């Protein structure tokens, strides 16, 4: 890691902001950028710096051209005369050749001058696992970050172990872990407590002490269930980052889904609130809990082919269209979260849109390209760009 250093000094960025006494932070629309931007905002606010923060689609232009403008996960589309622009990646990124989490790379830089709590470390880890192309257990993401992990998070609070990949496991009992797991989605088990109990009883295993043959029996059954409808999915046993000694969070993989949903339905302000006061993560979990029944129904309908998923090519880009009859779901349904669950099953392309009845096509904001300023004159509803034609999608995607 010593040979891999950011192109520019993070200290120079700090000095530029401190000398002005204010800063404007504009974040890309993905979770990693949102957490990194909120992390940076908290850091500067604790230094008595006046900070304005906004998502890319909310900030067509900087609020104050006299203040340093920090772009997080973004690149400039056009020059901004008079603006003092800083690309965060240039000040924290260890290796621009690989896909790396800005939030996680920010941790060791801030630790040089500030104390980073274990709760904020957990948020950075959630940002990292959200980068998985398919599953949150994408092993390439973990491999890319192994060196950075040692300098970013404390081994007293987090460790990488070989274990069951179920949300909350091994800190919660097996039935609860099965119930909470969304990646991969287990039909008749995920978010179905009766289904979880029935599965454990049928297998004749002790949910309080899972070892040896019982674990093999469980994994075999889960593979059988998911294999009936999934085109691909992560192994149920493998490397997993396990938290230790945190009261507010017991699983960073579930946390990534929680914060993704909050970002999608409530916006960057809620991510910032949690970074400023980590106990507010309980509010995020409450929002997630209220949405779970709807998520289970929608994903279940797709898995059982009651909801149609089309795969088409538009100007050379392969994408999926999730079609819903109920137009009232527009703005209420966490499209990106649902697409992420389906993507982990191989049932959805990397790029996907939703269509509600005969209404417009909805492209989730995290799938939009990272150029800024964001194109003006586009409608945003419920964490999605609303486009009048699917032919317009390639213009906005990464």
Structural summary, described in words:
By secondary structure, the protein is α/β, with parallel strands linked by helices. Among the domains are: about 130-295, no CATH class; about 305-395, no CATH class. Helices cover about 40% and strands about 15% of the residues. The strands form 4 sheets. Strands 8-9-10-11-14-13 form a 6-stranded mixed sheet. Helix 10 packs across helix 12. The longest helix has 23 residues, at about 280-305. The two termini are about 30 Å apart.
Order of strands in the sheet with most strands = 8-9-10-11-14-13
Tally of helical segments: 14
Largest sheet: 6 strands, mixed
How large is the radius of gyration?
Answer: 21 Å
The counted number of beta strands is: 14
Please tell me the overall pLDDT: 92
Unreliable residue runs: none
What structural class should be given to the helix and strand makeup?
alpha/beta
Oligomer: single chain
Taken as a percent bin, the fraction of beta residues is 15-25%
Q: Rough shape?
A: globular
Cα distance spanning the termini: 29 Å
Give me the strand/helix succession.
HEHEEEEHHHHEHHHEHHHEEHEEEEEH
In which range does the helix fraction lie? 40-55%
Break the fold down into its secondary structure elements and pairings.
Blueprint: H1 10-20, E1 22-27, H2 31-46, E2 50-55, E3 69-72, E4 75-76, E5 85-87, H3 88-92, H4 102-111, H5 118-129, H6 139-152, E6 158-164, H7 174-180, H8 193-203, H9 212-227, E7 237-243, H10 252-266, H11 268-276, H12 281-303, E8 309-314, E9 317-324, H13 335-343, E10 351-356, E11 361-364, E12 371-372, E13 379-381, E14 384-387, H14 393-396
Parallel strand pairs: 1-2, 1-3, 3-5, 4-12, 9-10
Antiparallel strand pairs: 6-7, 8-9, 10-11, 11-14, 13-14
Helix pairs in contact: 2-4, 2-5, 2-11, 4-5, 4-6, 5-10, 7-8, 10-11, 10-12, 12-13
């Amino acid at each position: 890691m010593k040979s891999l250093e950011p192109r520019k000094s993070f200290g120079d960025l700090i000095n530029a902001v401190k000398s002005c006494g204010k800063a404007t932070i504009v974040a890309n629309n993905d979770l990693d950028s949102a957490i990194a931007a909120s992390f940076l905002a908290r850091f500067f606010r604790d230094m008595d710096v006046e900070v304005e923060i906004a998502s890319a689609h909310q900030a067509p232009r900087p609020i104050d051209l006299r203040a340093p403008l920090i772009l997080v996960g973004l690149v400039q589309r056009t020059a901004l005369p008079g603006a003092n622009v800083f690309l965060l990646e240039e000040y924290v990124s260890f290796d621009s050749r690989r896909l790396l989490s800005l939030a996680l790379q920010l941790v060791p830089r801030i630790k040089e001058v500030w104390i980073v709590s274990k709760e904020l470390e957990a948020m950075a880890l959630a940002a990292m696992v959200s980068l998985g192309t398919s599953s949150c257990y994408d092993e390439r993401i973990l491999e890319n970050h192994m060196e950075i992990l040692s300098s970013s998070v404390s081994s007293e609070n987090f460790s990488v172990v070989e274990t069951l990949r179920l949300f909350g496991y091994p800190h919660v009992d097996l039935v609860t872990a099965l119930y909470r797991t969304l990646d991969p989605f287990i039909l008749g088990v995920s978010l179905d407590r009766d289904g979880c109990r029935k599965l454990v009883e049928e297998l004749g295993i002790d949910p309080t002490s899972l070892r040896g043959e019982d674990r093999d029996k469980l994994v075999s059954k889960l593979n059988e269930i998911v294999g009936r409808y999934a085109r691909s999915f992560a192994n149920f046993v493998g490397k997993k980052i396990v938290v230790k000694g945190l009261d507010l969070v017991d699983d960073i993989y579930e946390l990534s889904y929680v914060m993704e949903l909050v970002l999608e339905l409530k916006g960057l302000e809620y991510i910032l609130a949690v970074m400023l006061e980590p106990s507010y993560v309980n509010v995020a979990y409450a929002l997630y809990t209220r949405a779970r029944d709807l998520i289970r129904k929608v994903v279940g309908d797709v898995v059982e082919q009651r909801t149609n998923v089309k795969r088409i090519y538009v100007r050379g880009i392969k994408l999926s269209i999730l079609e819903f009859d109920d137009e009232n779901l527009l703005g209420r349904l966490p499209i990106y979260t649902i697409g992420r669950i389906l993507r982990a099953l191989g049932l959805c392309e990397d790029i996907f849109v939703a269509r509600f009845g005969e209404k417009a096509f909805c492209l989730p904001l995290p799938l939009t390209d990272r150029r800024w300023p964001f194109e003006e004159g586009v409608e945003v509803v419920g964490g999605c760009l609303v486009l009048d034609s699917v032919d317009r999608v390639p213009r906005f995607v990464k």
